[in-house]
Specification:
single chain, about 240 residues, Glutathione S-transferase Yfyf (Class Pi), Chain A, domain 2, 2 domains, four-stranded mixed beta sheet
Length: about 240
């Protein structure tokens, strides 16, 4: 299998962690969506990552990809068996991908890191201020009532845990930490991010975020990332659906 998408993306992180739980090997073309070429646009018409290639199958959207992995491959189940629990897991994944993505990616990571890095101009500080004052606390207030005191949401770690935890890695890249107003959430997120399925990705994430686009593949090769031989990356970014 081949994954197209940056190690730094929480949506790519979710898919890679699920592949690890399933014991599946893959190669990766670690592009950010701004740098995708015309082939990338063909595979991902919204110019979003990740894209999964499994033989002649091409899939977009992390939730679609993870559902496919769970249905097509045996091993560690990504969703609980009980229908009520499965429904709750799906909702929490949706909450992560939509609301937490809006808050922690577009409200923090993009204006503070990605926008300046890609477009060489400052991000939206007013958006950051609102995120820190209003939006992030509201998300954490909700999670504090949902996460378990110990362990993971449905026994063993699964898709919902990974989806929720993945966004806090990006928040951490720009200095955000869960403070003592939300002790259950802080402890839960720490457990999720410490699981090998996520923790084993950290060296690749750290290497990618520290590298320039031109030096990215070399930096990742140096830490042993399973890079694809070919790439759909371009040397310059393109504005589009994912550009604010």
């Amino acid at each position: 299998m081949k994954v197209i998408g940056s190690y730094v993306s929480p949506y790519v992180r979710k898919v890679l962690a699920c592949l690890a739980l399933k014991g599946l090997t893959y190669e990766i073309d670690p592009i950010t969506p701004f740098f995708g070429d015309d082939d990338f646009s063909r595979m991902s018409p919204l110019r979003r990552i990740p894209v999964l290639l499994d033989g002649d199958l091409q899939l977009c959207d992390s939730s679609v990809i993870c559902a496919y992995l769970d249905e097509a491959y045996p091993g560690h189940p990504l969703l609980p068996a009980d229908p009520r629990a499965r429904a709750r897991a799906r909702w929490l994944e949706e909450f992560a991908d939509t609301r937490m993505g809006d808050v922690f990616i577009w409200g923090l990571f993009y204006p503070l890191f990605a926008h300046p890095a890609v477009w060489n101009e400052p991000g939206d500080q007013a958006r950051v201020d609102k995120t820190l004052a209003e939006d992030a606390p509201a998300v954490l207030n909700y999670l504090e009532g949902e996460v378990p005191v110990e362990g993971f949401l449905f026994g063993t770690i699964g898709l919902a845990d990974i989806a929720l935890g993945a966004f806090f890695r990006n928040a951490g890249f720009v200095g955000f930490a869960i403070d003592d107003r939300w002790p259950l959430t802080a402890a839960y997120v720490a457990r999720v991010l410490a699981h090998p399925a996520l923790a084993d990705l950290r060296r690749f994430e750290d290497a990618q975020i520290a590298a320039t686009p031109a030096g990215r593949r070399a930096a990742l090769a140096a830490v042993g990332a399973p890079l694809s031989a070919e790439t759909v990356a371009t040397p310059t970014p393109r504005k589009g659906i994912m550009s604010l």
